[in-house]
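Data card: per-record layout.
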Amino acid sequence: MSVILPKSLNRPKTPVRLLAVSAVALVLAGCGTVQPVPFTEDELKERMAEDRLQMYADQEPITAPISFHEATARALKYNLDYKLKLMETALSRSLHDVSKFEMLPAVVASAGYVSRNNDSGGRSIGIEDRIESLRPSTSQERDRTLADLTFSWNVLDFGVSYYRAQQKADQVLMAEERRRKVVQNVMQDVRNSYWRALGAQKLLGRVDNLLARVNTALERAREIEDQGLMPRQEVLAYQRALLDAVNLLTLRRQDLELARAELSALMSIAPGTPYTLADENELPLPPVPANVEALETMALERRPEIMEEWYRKRVTENDIKAAKLLLWPNLNLDAGIHYDSNTYNYNSSWVDTGLRLSWNILKLTQWPSLKRAHKYQNETDDMRRMALSMAVLTQVRVGLQRYDLALSELDFAKESLRVDQQLLKFAEAASQSRFQSELEVIRAEARALLAEYQRYASYSNAQAAWGRLYNSVGLDVLPEAVEDHDVQTIAKAIADTTNQWQQEVFGVTAQAAGQPITATPVSVSFPASTPAEQLEQSAMQISLRETSGR
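The structure for this 550-residue chain is written out next.
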């Protein structure tokens, strides 16, 4: 029997084969060259500089004093935390859009080239006599081109993708609730800082002037102590009183400076940028609301944390539903158009369809466990929501009490300010009549200034308590849609929204507040006297107080 060798047994490799071998060699060589590469010092500096520019980029310039609502608008527009939540919401919406397309069937187009180094073929033998019946033959070329367009639809994959799309939709709503919470917190932080910063703007210069005068008096007292012009005990008592005033004023000055720094950070204003706050009338503080049950009901309906937890329950429930769906039979539909350049084929192109049903019966054993997990998951979610609801109700009650106490503290601060202002006037008159010493005037002026600071701090605390009560009910700061996104438009929208909520929920009409109670700076002119005479007057006054005390 003659043997005929296949044609082109030693056929040279085609360029495509050479290209494939070269690509594999390059990939293998590249895998060994991947090493950890840290950032260089120049790259770190460049990144730092770029981040600093981006943090304060594209901001509207400050051309006028900043009002409270404008400060809130700037914080909402430029605050990085709020920007992050906006981006997270946009990301959730994009992921939801992507998940909707996962429910579509798979339509795959493919094309390729196939090559082998020898012929594909076979031979046949008889089943009974095991004698070769045909000579070796082939029905496939060594080099072929292929093309396919296939359609595939898996019922279980469709069902799981449907539940995943529902989860993504709920996660969009959860991201929106987190955004609402950040908006409310940003306004609360601005409310805490703005009024203290405004008080700082009004008082800081006067505090510095008074500190300068106190330091001057201390220098004179040290000179007299060194010269021995007065008894040492009296001079030290005088210095002790001045140092007490310096200590209190310095502490208050630090509070004032920190308030402005906090407000600048909230508005994302670059450090060192000069700006002033509008010397506007203080916003009216409404009386303590009496409709406690209505506020509690609204808090349970509107708080972002409760709504987010409710949406999270739907997300976890869809997880269990998707797991249960995978227990059922799977139906797969297939159809495709195919092409093969093999010249030995009777038909080079064809269409095929298929229907396949499969079922992993052993997965049914998971059903009791999944059912129990579904039950316990729902109970856990409900309990978590109820615990959160209890905390929300507590916040409403505590917010009302804090607001009531803050209003009482504000009334007391106003009365203290009135008394200290009167005492300052008496001290000034007595000093000009030489019945009181410079020490008493400085101490009276320090008390009046501290009382005015306490009045501003009490008003700020009352505003903060009102803001916490506002937040505890879950009221929104912005409307659903804003006409424009410039600072002034956002500020007007914030003012209109808060006024509307205060009128509808708390029964407070938006009226202009009266002029804030502020102490008029008193310029004290001391009579021309020597330091010794001033210390003698102080010693006489101390002696008179001791005599009256006895």
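Known properties of this structure: Residues 1-13, 510-550 have pLDDT under 50 and may be disordered. The first strand starts at residue 106 and ends at 115.

See the next section for split statistics.
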